[in-house]
Amino acid sequence: MDGIAIIDPSFRALVLPNVPLETLGEGFGWLEGPVWFADLDCLLVSDLPHDRILRWTTSSGISIFRQPSNFANGHTRDREGRLIGCSHCGRCITRTE
Fold first, then answer.
1. Domains and CATH numbers, the chain
2. pTM exceeds 0.85
3. pLDDT at 32
4. Nearest-angstrom CA–CA distance, 79 and 52
5. Do the Cβ atoms of 33 and 45 come closer than 8 Å?
6. Which percentage of the chain shows pLDDT scores above 70?
7. How far apart are CA 36 and CA 55, in angstroms?
8. Exposed, middle or buried by CB within 10 Å (0-12, 13-18, 19+), for 46?
9. pLDDT beyond 60 at 1
10. Which of 22, 77, 81, 87 is nearest to 52 (CA)?
């Protein structure tokens, strides 16, 4: 795991030895709420200080998925594959078809 600093030793047990960690982007101050969409080959993550949701794909790298996002985070997918997120600004739960 060259270039990755593990602060809590218990994290090492969560990393598979045959799957290397990789940096997908840099320069962000606070990202959270990641959710993987395997069927779309993309990762969505909240960039809270900038009130947006970012999308990462292997082909395009990082782009903006939604801005403003009403400070959405805590993402997951429901049983039908839709994006579910918690909105700090709207004080609600959102669903994206």
1. 29-96 (2.40.10.500)
2. no
3. 93
4. 24
5. yes
6. 97
7. 10
8. buried
9. no
10. 87
CA neighbor of 42 nearest in space, from 34, 31, 52, 30: 34
33 close to 54: Cβ distance less than 8 angstroms: no
Structure tokens at 55: 């999308």
Structure tokens given for 73: 């985070």
Question: Which H, E and C letters describe the chain, residue by residue?
Answer: CCCCCCCCHHHHHHCCCCCCCCCCCCCCCCEEEEEEEHHHCEEEEEEHHHCEEEEEECCCEEEEEECCCCCEEEEEECCCCCEEEEECCCCEEEEEC
